[in-house]
Amino acid sequence: MEHKRIEQCFLRNADGSYTEITYESLLRLKDYRSRFFIFCENSLLEAPEDVYREFQRAKRRERYLLTEQQRIGHLPMDEELLADLTCVEDDAVAEVMRGHLFALLRNLPAKDFSLIYALYFEGKSEAEIGSSLGITQQAVSLRKIRVLERLKKYF
After folding, report:
1. The pTM is what?
2. pLDDT exceeds cutoff 70 at 74
3. Pairwise CA distance, residues 44 & 7, whole Å
């Protein structure tokens, strides 16, 4: 069996964000064996127990289906079965990315955070925000672009 190289590890913080550490640092943690990790794209992602168990269930199901396919030559696929084969790895990666995004948002200056929050979480338009701040919609748009460009640097 080929061993996969672990390039990075992400530990889940109490607030749901993630901290990146090396594999060697992970092995030095006293409680790392009692945590739940998902191997995905050469990384270990710490996950809540229910997410980990669902991931393992999906992996077992995938192995079973591959074995059955090899045994009988094909596998009939219906819509229900296809829906059951959702990619848990994608969900885990998305959760890590959301954690990084929320950590970045918390570190924005208050006026930038308020702008992003109003636009994306409250659903306000640039014009509405501009009128409440006493600035033009174009000024709001420029601020939004600058903030999003700063956030993109971390992704």
Report:
1. 0.46
2. no
3. 8
